[in-house]
Design a protein that fits this description.
556 residues, 28 strands, 18-stranded antiparallel β-barrel, mainly beta, 11% helix, 48% strand, two-stranded antiparallel ribbon, single chain
């Protein structure tokens, strides 16, 4: 079977290579260009599909090219930002000669360290091979609840193209922080990424991550093999379907765009189950506490997901998708991109829940500029949804969540960006009585960081003062009940929303971000948190926490 799959894969690539188009490299999801293009799409200047990120650099460059043709509709600040971002896309550039006469850009060189235009440690380009290389250096210091904190990050990033079809990218960084604040409120209820620790105790933590992929592109699709993070959703404060909260995981990804109004995405990923295989233990030659250290394996865990995105009219997208979490062994049915996963699960498990997988259904709607300068969207994620008796409290059984959001640009003044989001996740969503089938990887939910039985209101104002200098005011208000794990999440009648002892959190914060050169930035953040924990006697214990952080960095 494995040899058959390999042969078919090779044949598939050979067939695809008959259609030459362009290379593909994906831009990291924390790049500021996403926010820039998002804002311009609110004004109807471009059609922009960012449901699934990261996006290819070629796609982003083409959107910048479209914007340049409409530069008369930009504010003076947006024009400055356009020139700034175009300098980033030197390897993708087919556009230098179309800029304003007074615009100065530096052509790629073998070595470029030009502070005026774009600082690169190493760049190379010829007719066959193109590559950019830069280090990653960040230093962060601050205080959380009166406790001093620092974090240092170092690594490297390179990406490039070979020929007309192949792209590659690599990013590695190592982190050291003191003390370890992963489980504290600064990280618990935020989109800050989870970690796979190499060293962790109360005093310090060390962890690293590698993002790498090989990508092949043809004129109507792309295929990638790599390890990275993926977002699915329009929210900026946690995605209900697929978020970047878990550490990066290996994947195979296929994107098909047969026409302008239809797009199809398929993802198959290898997850970390954090469940030990009890049958795999055996003794080694290493002795600790007079006993042989035991060797063991983790249970295998996988995610398969496909998404169909329809664009029936300009600025309006309808997205439908399905995913499945399965474990123990690789299943060929879930490697078929157009398979109906729920039906495949019934076939594989013989319709036995104890032998089955965990399937989900989701959809999203997005409307851009139908109300001028406005983006409205909604996302829905169903872990389990039974129509029979849905409205009868004695028999209703469901596990789902949703996010509704709206963003406004240049209202009421230029360069002002406002956002409002509401997320609600019902008890039991993402959970499963079989630990290897929870909707998670590396002990982090694949979906929203809130977890189940909680809701969230998020509000923010973002104002760009000058090019590269942004100020952001934000607040989030969280209500969280008891998480539904085990039998309690399957009993009827269902527990009501926010059942159990309550936790309430009010966050208020201010951020200053200054990217004074490409990838060179200075960030300052201050936030306060009010925590209210309900006691058994139904009273609340309150405390107030404040924190601030200053970060200087180069590279993503």
């Amino acid at each position: 079977m494995n040899n058959y799959i390999i042969r078919m894969g090779v044949l598939y690539l050979v067939i695809l290579s008959l259609n030459i188009y362009a290379q593909v490299v994906y831009e990291p999801i924390n790049s500021s260009i996403y926010n820039y293009l998002d804002k311009l799409s609110h004004k109807g200047l471009i059609e922009y599909n960012d449901l699934i990120k990261p996006l290819p650099r070629e796609y982003l460059f083409n959107k910048l090219s479209e914007v340049e043709k409409k530069r008369n509709k930009l504010t003076s600040l947006e024009k400055e930002e356009l020139v700034f971002y175009l300098k980033e896309f030197d390897l993708e550039d087919k556009f230098y000669n179309k800029l304003e006469p007074n615009t100065t850009l530096v052509k790629p060189k073998f070595y470029n360290f030009n502070l005026k235009d774009r600082m690169r440690i190493f760049t190379y380009s010829d007719s066959l091979f193109k590559m950019n290389f830069n280090p990653i250096l960040k230093y962060q210091t601050g205080s959380f609840d009166g406790e001093s904190y620092f974090k240092i990050t170092y690594g490297l990033r390179f990406y490039g193209y070979i020929g007309d079809n192949f792209g590659f990218q690599f990013r590695f960084y190592n982190n050291r922080e003191e003390p370890n604040i992963l489980d504290k409120l600064w990280n618990r209820f935020t989109s800050n990424q989870g970690r796979d620790y190499s060293l962790s105790d109360g005093d310090r933590a060390e962890y690293s991550e590698v993002n790498a992929s090989l990508n092949y592109n043809w004129n109507w699709g792309k295929i990638s093999v790599g390890q990275d993070k993926t977002n699915l959703g329009y929210s900026k404060n946690g995605q209900i379907v697929l978020s970047a909260k878990p550490p990066a995981f290996p994947f195979i990804k296929i994107e098909i765009t047969p026409t302008s109004w239809l797009k199809f995405n398929f993802l198959h990923a290898w997850l970390n189950s954090d469940v030990k295989d009890s049958s795999s233990f055996y003794s080694t030659d290493r002795i600790r506490n007079d006993e042989a250290v035991q060797r063991f394996n983790w249970r295998q865990k996988y995610l398969a997901q496909h998404t169909l995105i329809l664009t029936p009219l300009k600025g309006f997208d309808i997205s439908l998708g399905e995913s499945v979490i399965y474990s123990d062994r690789l299943e060929i049915s879930y490697l078929i991109p157009i398979m109906f996963f729920d039906q495949a699960d019934e076939h594989i498990s013989r319709d036995n829940n104890q032998a089955g997988s965990n399937t989900q259904f989701f959809f999203a709607l997005s409307s851009r500029n139908h109300i001028p300068n406005t983006h409205l969207w909604g996302s829905f994620f169903a872990d389990e949804l039974t129509p029979d008796g849905l409205f009868d409290p004695k028999t209703q059984y469901y596990k789902f969540g949703f996010t509704l959001g709206a963003t406004f640009v240049n209202l009421p003044i230029d360069n002002l960006f406002a956002r409002a989001e509401y997320t609600k996740i019902y008890p039991g969503t993402y959970q499963h009585f079989i630990p290897t089938l929870t909707y998670s990887s590396s002990e982090n939910f694949l979906g929203h960081w809130l977890g189940d039985n909680a809701d969230l209101v998020f509000l923010s104002l973002d104002y760009t003062i000058v090019r590269g200098l942004n100020i952001n005011l934000w607040g989030q208000f969280i209500r969280k009940g008891q998480s539904s794990v085990g039998d309690i999440s399957y009993d009827l009648p269902m527990e009501p929303f926010l059942y159990g002892l309550r936790e309430n959190y009010d966050y208020f914060g201010i951020k200053l971000n200054y990217e004074f050169m490409h990838d060179v930035f200075l960030n300052f953040e201050y936030q306060t948190i009010k925590e209210s924990i309900e006691n058994q006697d139904l009273t609340f214990t309150n405390r107030n926490i404040s924190s601030y952080f200053l970060l200087l960095g180069y590279g993503f």
